[in-house]
Amino acid sequence: MSLETDIRKMVESIGLSLYDTAIVNENENTIFRVSVTAPGGVNLDQCVEVSHLISPLLDVTSPVSGEYRLEVSSPGIERKLKTLQHFERSIGEKVALSTIDKSKFEGELIAVENEEIVLKTSEGEQKIPFRSISKAKTYFEW
What we know:
By secondary structure, the chain is α+β, with helices and mostly antiparallel strands. The chain folds into 2 domains: about 5-75, GMP Synthetase, Chain A, domain 3, CATH 3.30.300; about 85-140, SH3 type barrels. Helix content is about 25%, strand content about 40%. The protein has 3 helices and 8 strands, in the order αββαβαβββββ. α1 (about 5-10) runs antiparallel to α2 (about 45-60). It starts with a helix and ends with a strand.
């Protein structure tokens, strides 16, 4: 089993869902980010609980070589969309995406059908094959 699978099982054991894991470098620090979700949102106490729950696992199976910092949080209101499940969970939200051929789209995510993302844009309904998306995120209009 993979580390992400083990983390997913632990997170689900306390009623949350694993959204994503990522290794990032910021200001010469390595950070292992774990994003979790739940219906109605995630609070600070739940993030602390996840951190305490998965820390022993990470002591045995380190996500990176060398020192790192663990961060557990919700993915936020503006978040990256990497999987079909991410898109499915974001139906009804505003999405900005780029495709492999450098096309850009913005609009309301209205459906995920047959591995296609359906956006309602100012030019009408656009169907974009999931496999052609290079980058996508939700956004919030203030």
